[in-house]
Amino acid sequence: MVGGFANYAINDQLTVQPELMFSQAGCKFDADGDPKLKLNYIVLPIMVKYSFGAINLQAGPQLGFLLSAEDDGDDIKEFLKPIDLGLNIGAGYQIMENLGVEARYNLGLSNIVDEGDGELKTNGIQVLVSYSF
After folding, report:
1. Which of 22, 61, 111, 128 could form a disulfide with 102 if both were Cys (CB 3.0 to 4.6 A apart)?
2. What is the distance between the terminal CA atoms of the chain, rounded to a whole angstrom?
3. Under CATH, to which class is 2-131 assigned?
4. Residue 77 phi/psi, 5° resolution?
5. Would you tell me how many other CB atoms lie within 10 Å of the CB of residue 49?
6. Would the pTM of this model clear 0.85, i.e. be above it?
């Protein structure tokens, strides 16, 4: 993931952090471990953070807009829904005033398969490094 964020303080411990990011996801199907499914999204997480000094706990919804989808090099975007809804939960540590690290789990809430009886939900672990200006 790569992108930007803004941080709005509600009080000394509670903040709201909207983000705009490019995210690439995929999964491995074959025995060689080669990624076969590649999904590119623009994602809009809105994280609510509660801080205990340098440590924070965070949670919030994430809305994803599908840019492209490939299965073993074939375009499959037409078979997937254009919007993905998820929920992020995680924790972070503020190393210095402008530098922090975070770990999140993204739980996909919506089935992204547009046609047929199949079901596919996105989920994954996100590790982020943040720098604020």
Report:
1. 128
2. 19
3. mainly beta
4. -55, -35
5. 21
6. yes
Q: What is the C-alpha separation between 5 and 111, in angstroms, rounded?
A: 27
Stretch among 27-31, 51-55, 90-94, 115-119 having the lowest mean pLDDT: 27-31
Mean pLDDT, the chain, rounded, equals 92
Question: Where exactly are the structural domains of the chain?
Answer: 2-131
Spatial contact of 41 and 84, defined as CB atoms under 8 Å apart: yes
Residue 7 CA from chain centroid, whole number? 17
DSSP assignment of the chain = -EEEE--EESSSSEEEEEEEEEEEEEEE-STT--EEEEEEEEEEEEEEEEEETTEEEEEEEEEEEEEEEEETTEE-GGGB-SEEEEEEEEEEEESSSSEEEEEEEEEE-S--B-SSS-----EEEEEEEEE--
Query: Cα 95 from chain centroid?
Result: 22
Condensed to tens digits (0 to 9), the pLDDT of residues 112-128 reads 998 777 888 889 999 99
